[in-house]
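Example record used in the benchmark description.
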Amino acid sequence: MPLPRFTDRTALVTGGGSGIGRAVALAFAAEGARVVVAGRGRAALDETVALVEGAGGSAVALVADVTRAADVDALVRAVVDRFGALDVAVNNAGVFRGAGPVADVAEEDWRTLLDVNVTGVFLALRAEIRQMRSQPDGGAIVNVSSNLGPHRQARGIAAYGASKAAVSALTRGAALDHIADGVRINAVSPGPSDTAMSLRHGESSADRAARMKELSPLGRVSSTEEVAQAVLYLASDAAASVVGTDLVIDGGAAL
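Model output (structure tokens):
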């Protein structure tokens, strides 16, 4: 049986209170990592920690708002103070706002998308890279983007898509800037996944399943565990020469 890939490593997951972030936290813990989940809601983070510990893993929750530089810097310091290093970071915190044609998108929704999805990733990357490049073994970072924006378009999601296209571009640029520092940076771009974000207004999981059977080449949404396994691959030593990639996980929707 293969040895766990992340034994004695510390992994930070933003947006770790639900959905893909929670699945990523559980997957890292199952592979031996000490996991730190971060986000704005203490109760949801505590639920993730309880799930990790119930499965025999190790996790702690830290409250932080990724749109605030002071919060993000303090978050990284807290991880290092507690565990001695930051080996892996997954920048998953994100929001969906501003659905509808560009002409009808509220400025408040636009600014929220940029604040959380773009500035939040930038601030997290900056703090994580500064720490990792000071470590003898560097580190690995995976940003969570989307197939919408970088890889495909659909009506009514231009604002969201623009924010995620920025994440993918920032990933590639940061990867080029910092691979010589020993910091390896990549992204995943999920399509519809088994999360609340992929449900249309008033739609049930069964309704979504029927819709995806018609719309997706794969015929279904991706599970959060499938996305998590892609994240773990990019963060692992098996991907040591993978730099600046944007791995699409969408059942063929962007083809």
